Amino acid sequence: MSGKKSVTIIGAGTAGLLAARELSRRNIHTIVYDQKRELGLPVRASGILSIKGLGELGIYYSRAITNTLYGANIHAGGTKLRIKANAPVAHVLDRKKLNDICHDEALASGSKVVLGKRMDAKTFESLSANDIMIGADGAVSSVAKHFSMGEIRRYILTYKAEFNISAEDSGIVDLFFDNKISKGLFGWFCPNRSDILEIGIGIDSRYGNAKTAFEKFIATDYVSKTISGSRRISEGASIIPMSLREKIVDTKKEVLLVGDAAGQVKPSTGGGIIYGGNAALMAARTIQDHLNKGASLSEYTTMYNRKYSIDTAIHRLTNAIYSSIGSDKLGVAVKIMKAMQLGRLLGKYGDMDMPSLILRNMLISAAGGR
Question: Which domain holds residue 289?
Fold first, then answer.
């Protein structure tokens, strides 16, 4: 059984604060450090989160909602596939407010959060000598680097801006696939509010610069017509890890990684809050069992893989397919999907986070509900 009784978390993002909340609710002394002096700033990532996934995290997120989504339009090679559900499937959240909510919940549970704290190798060694440590410090994690927990093999660079313009349909997000501009991911329109449209793009870091790709994207005929007469309100870049690190736990040093620090994202979209947030809950449960029952911290890896390995593989395959074929062929693929009425089926059975459930539900339907 471990001689350590407390937990230090490096990084006060969503995953780190969720881990703190859960540990404190288990009466485990927890302190969170972050080098930023104000939480959630600058806001660089988008906030489209599935309603089902948010429910799993147990966050009282309602005051962070800026919009509700029912589906998506998929654009490729001049063809559009519409996927729309009868009920809401996702919320657009203000990421700053979401982080504030997670911070409040962590504090209410008994965690301590220290801002403006810079870390170095000596500090890491000192903290890890006495406490179990969780690295929740983002895609270029200093914790992962210091404890030699492996590299992120692939990154996506994103750039986005908000425009003071209304979306054609405020309940729909538009995704644009064009490997000449956004190889490795896609461009998007996300209606953040009824009068604010977020436009962004992601590109594999091996193939270009996100800001350059963004300017090419908004110069295309469709996008330029959409934003004509509007102005940019805010803009910024971010980096997204697109592979899981070699190790997400070091049982000897008693160090765990959660969220972007671990590479816990959906490779098809780069979304990480649901996967990383659930990983934070798993880390807390694992640490509780480790402290109280002497269970191995390696159970954290087992739990994460059990829940997400199949769906991560499906997301990764999806990304590999749309990243490897040209826009014309993508357009043909979308036409075939339209002919097969996959838009309707995905609207009925779709799950943003767990594509394996889509396949299972479709098979059950095809078998007559058996």
Answer: 7-47+94-152+245-319
